[in-house]
Amino acid sequence: MGNNANNPFLNPVPAVPLRMSESTLNLPTIQRGEFPADFLWGCSTASFQIEGANQEDGRGESIWDRFCATPGRIRDGSDGSVACDHYHRWPEDMDLARHLGVNSYRFSIAWPRIFPDGRGAQPNQKGIDFYSRLIDGMLERGLQPWATLYHWDLPQALQYEGGWANRATMDAFVAYTDSVTRRFGDRVKHWITHNEPWCTAFLGHHEGTHAPGVRDFKTSMQVCHHLLVSHGLAVPVVRSNVPNAKVGITLSLHPIVPATDSAADAAAAWRHDGSRNRWFLDPLYGRGYPADVTALLGRNAPEVLEGDFSAMATPTDFLGVNYYFPEVVTDAPGVRPINTRVIERANAERTAFGWEVSPDGMVTLLDRIQRDWNPNAIYITENGSTFDDVVLPDGSVDDIERRRYLVRHLIAAREALARGVALKGYFAWSLLDNFEWAEGYVRRFGLTYVDYATQKRTLKASGHWYARFLHGR
Ligand code: FCB
To answer: Cα of 397 to ligand 1 centre, how many Å?
Structure first.
């Protein structure tokens, strides 16, 4: 199966253990001063997960509004109509970010606030005004704005025309990019085209667990292709509108671990790596799609038109990496589409989501990205964890596990730097508890606890730790 000539899992490089204590209470130490002075420290959010106000000031419907309104799609039956009410409470939230001591803030722009119908001759001025105020608010507080253009809230009007399965959506994305970068490019220099195309393509169009809830593998591959091509088409538009622009894409990437040292599992890991990592990084860095994966896809491989590969390979300034967990893979003949299965490693530490906690996996991943694709700069644009937070009688939230997760991943970041990775910044997911997609409000990822009944924000112990770390030397 596939071409194993380059399969690193057949001759694995032994992992170097991290220098850290494994005891829960005895947290290892790390200081901001151990990182380069110009390292970016931030936190991330996304429009649909925090803004609410989904019918205000002319915002159009998004595919996530529609998805939430479909019974059974969201675990707790909730939706994004109020979320963290960030649309109204953003000054308080930006104050929180400043209090943390971050020097950058990653947010996303809701396309349906700018073009309620997906496209048009003129953008919705009230939507423009909202982000304009928000961006000014960041700059006033010393926060460098990092804008994501697409964090999953496609205008529903475009979904009626096929959404990302339709090439015309790429043109609408480029027009939307043009409109917002013209208006905000004087103040926003850092632009991320897409957030995690894997999720939009496969959770949204193969598994159907994310909006728009389509279940068709061939469609998901075509959607994935259009996302990557639209990224490449948007990059020069950002550059032409934004003086001194820095532009990139954010991918969800995973270190892949063969379940055993058998040759069959090594081959499975390589195939899985092909679909999770190489499928994205190879075309973005000019190598086209990996031939071994294309061969496995057969008739499900995407239709590629002339010019698509060169568009996808448009040079960028940085790669955004969202790192959450490794995937342990076994050979699984007959399991479509690529005969692999992700299994749970016995005795692994896990978050409340079941995601394996592996800071050394982050080092392995970053090291490998640098070696195999050599981006100019890498930013961790998301990293974080969900645990079942408890509000204590005095109102505080002592989230020791999340704090420990954060500390250990910062140690992993330090280790990656020591190994020569061009890591330039770290954004914690997330500033606030928020709407966690199909999980609704059940999963809390925030450094700040949000009481959804009152909208009261309380910095958790992890947030207090991050603030102390950032204010230290
Ligand atoms: C990532 C998403 C982000 C958030 C985290 C937990 O996949 O980009 O919006 O939901 O997971």
So the answer is: 22
